[in-house]
Design goal:
CATH topology of the largest domain in chain B: Rossmann fold
Oligomer: heterodimer
CATH topology of chain A: MetI-like fold
Order of helices and strands of chain B: HHHEEEHEEEHHHHEHEHEEH
CATH class of chain A: Mainly Alpha
Bound molecules: adenosine-5'-diphosphate, magnesium ion
Number of helices of chain B: 11
CATH superfamily of the largest domain in chain B: P-loop containing nucleotide triphosphate hydrolases
Number of strands of chain B: 10
Shape of chain B: globular
Number of helices of chain A: 10
CATH class of the largest domain in chain B: Alpha Beta
Strand order of the largest sheet of chain B: 6-7-8-3-9-10
Distance between the termini of chain B: 53 Å
Order of helices and strands of chain A: HHHHHHHHHH
Helix content of chain B: 40-55%
Largest sheet of chain B: 6 strands, mixed
Largest sheet of chain A: none
CATH architecture of chain A: Orthogonal Bundle
Structural class of chain B: alpha/beta
Chain lengths: ~250, ~300
């Protein structure tokens, strides 16, 4: 743990340095070559755009984050629930695994017309889309985690007279946590992306909707402003779950 | 039941008194030989597909007895423990009796306290919480179980380490946590599978003396696997030497050395005599298992 900390703070330093360099190049290119805003607006213009539209953008971000978070929560519950069900009742494996794989053979966005038709263009359809995308990733990673349990440890628990539920709770789930949380961390960014993409296909608000409207109005600084806000939102979500992961997996 | 075991237990102080006045070893027919056995195995066989791990294994263990089992590796020692712990069902035909009643292996789940060859500590639980795993499974409230474990910590040389996690402990300490977990699961019969196998010689000698102290205090019946003949004699009331695979009992040797046993006992003539007898038996079996391994290699 103590050995992991310095190297990860080094990674953060490198990441920040990389981002600063990228922004400087970007700014230099856009200003130096006098690029028109529909090609690439300067970073300073985009940040100014974010500031001037802060009310609109923060409301849109709240809207999108609500969809992403609720969908994410639902997706995690469904994914973990299915993986646990399969572990407790192995006969389900032959039913659930092929069905889940078949549904996910098509990118989730492929289902968006149907989902919008069934759930309308309000927040619910976005939540469903996010939940679908998240649940599969979390399901697969949880299942891999649950399967990784040491048979000898299961036998030890059995020798104490432990039943299936007790073994699940005291052994299987904690064993699965590292992979489960990795799946959850990867799903954070995905959940924001799916929410935004679905908003572009029809919505009453949100960052995707703002981007779509801005394109219609040929306001590229606003497109980029919304993209910046979306990136910041996804990165913070990713960071938050990553932080939680390190707190929970203290023994790693 | 435990009270019974304590009463049946060999009367230690009087035996020691007898030994102080005379050098003759105690008679082999100690009281527990006559007592009703706690565990009895008759013609127990276990095969895994084409491999017969145990064949016609016969043994009985009296309440309070410390029985050690030695044998070449792969001869079925762990398989024997898995059966007695209730994890594997032996092949049909054998007889398994516990506390005088004939039973299936599965009936023994939750009734025997089993310590596997690996410590299998859970990395997300600290020392105390690892030690109380079995108590928790039994349904004891955590606070109560922890209080009980905390009281036992000093005896297991773990005082002050209750909040440490397994990855922060040395091999010897991890082994003691696993032993404490086994002791806290209070059952009359304890199965210890090479608990000190991975430790260095000094730590091992210390742990052996310590185990004898703890055993004399708690008066459990212990079946103990080892591949170390010195350890088998030093600890046991009786040593079972197993044959090469398929495993059965080749030799049953009563160890009539006085208790408490001092470390110097390993150089006593009686000890050396026992060791020679056992080593001869083991050597013969090791040769057999070596030859059959070579033959298998050739057959491929
Ligand atoms: N679950 C199992 N499946 C197949 N073979 C097994 C199994 N358990 C043990 N064996 C075989 O039985 C034999 C005895 O193994 P084991 O009891 O672990 O030996 P020991 O503990 O004496 O070293 C070995 O040849 C081993 O390969
Ligand atoms: Mg073994």
């Amino acid at each position: 743990m103590s050995a992991a900390l310095p190297s990860s703070s080094l990674a953060v330093q490198r990441g920040v340095l990389g981002a600063v360099l990228l922004v400087l190049c970007w700014e230099g290119l856009a200003r130096g070559l006098h690029l028109p805003s529909y090609v690439l607006p300067a970073v300073s213009d985009i940040l100014a755009g974010v500031w001037s539209k802060r009310a609109l953008l923060s409301e849109a971000a709240g809207y999108t984050l609500l969809e992403a978070l609720v969908g994410y929560g639902l997706g995690c519950l469904v994914g973990i629930g299915l993986a646990v069900a399969i572990t407790m009742l192995p006969v389900l494996r032959t039913v659930i695994l092929p069905a889940a794989t078949a549904i996910n053979a098509v990118p989730v966005v492929g289902y968006s017309p149907l989902i919008l038709l069934w759930f309308g263009i309000g927040v619910v359809s976005k939540m469903v889309m996010v939940a679908m995308a998240v649940s599969f990733t979390v399901f697969l990673s949880t299942l891999a985690g649950l399967d990784r349990v040491d048979r000898r440890a299961v036998d030890l628990m059995r020798s104490f007279g432990a039943g299936r539920l007790s073994i699940l709770w005291r052994l299987r789930l904690p064993t699965a946590l590292p992979l489960l949380l990795a799946g959850m961390r990867v799903s954070t960014v995905r959940s924001v992306i799916i929410a935004i993409i679905t908003e572009m296909l029809g919505a009453y608000g949100g960052l995707g909707w703002v981007i779509y409207q801005a394109v219609l109005q040929i306001d590229f600084v606003q497109v980029w402003s919304a993209i910046f806000v979306a990136s910041a939102a996804s990165l913070s979500f990713f960071g938050l779950i990553g932080l939680l992961e390190r707190k929970i997996l203290f023994w790693k | 039941m435990r009270e019974m075991a304590v009463i049946i237990q060999r009367d230690l102080p009087s035996v020691q008194a007898a030994l102080q006045t005379s050098v003759t070893p105690i008679a082999a027919g100690s009281p527990e030989a006559a007592a009703k056995p706690l565990l009895e195995l008759r013609a127990v066989t276990k095969s895994f597909g084409p491999v017969t791990a145990l064949a016609d294994f016969e043994a009985s263990v009296a309440p309070g007895e410390f029985v050690t089992v030695v044998g070449p590796s792969g001869c079925g020692k762990s398989t024997l423990f898995n059966i007695v712990a209730g994890l594997e069902e032996p092949d049909a035909g054998g007889i398994l009796r516990f506390e005088g009643n004939s039973c299936h292996a599965a009936d023994l789940l939750g009734r025997v306290s089993f310590m596997p060859q690996q410590d299998l500590l859970l990395p997300w639980r600290n020392v105390v919480d690892n030690a109380i795993l079995a108590l928790e499974v039994e349904g004891m409230p955590r606070a109560e179980a922890r209080a009980k474990a905390l009281k036992m910590l000093p005896e297991f040389g773990l005082a002050g380490f209750e909040k440490q996690y397994p990855h922060q402990l040395s091999g010897g300490m991890r082994q003691r946590v696993a032993l404490m977990r086994t002791f806290l699961f209070e059952r009359d019969l304890m199965l210890l599978d090479e608990p000190f196998g991975a430790l260095d010689a000094l730590t091992r000698a210390m742990m052996q003396r310590w185990l004898l102290d703890v055993w004399q205090k708690y008066r459990r019946t212990i079946l103990f696997i080892t591949h170390d003949v010195d350890e088998a004699i030093f600890l046991g009331d009786r040593v079972l030497v197993m044959t090469a695979r398929p495993g059965s009992v080749k030799l049953e040797q009563v160890v009539d050395l006085p208790r408490p046993r001092r470390p110097e006992i390993v150089t006593a003539p009686e000890f050396v005599r026992l060791k020679r007898t056992l080593l001869d038996a083991i050597e013969e079996e090791s040769m057999k298992s070596f030859q059959s391994a070579v033959a298998e290699e050739k057959a491929k």
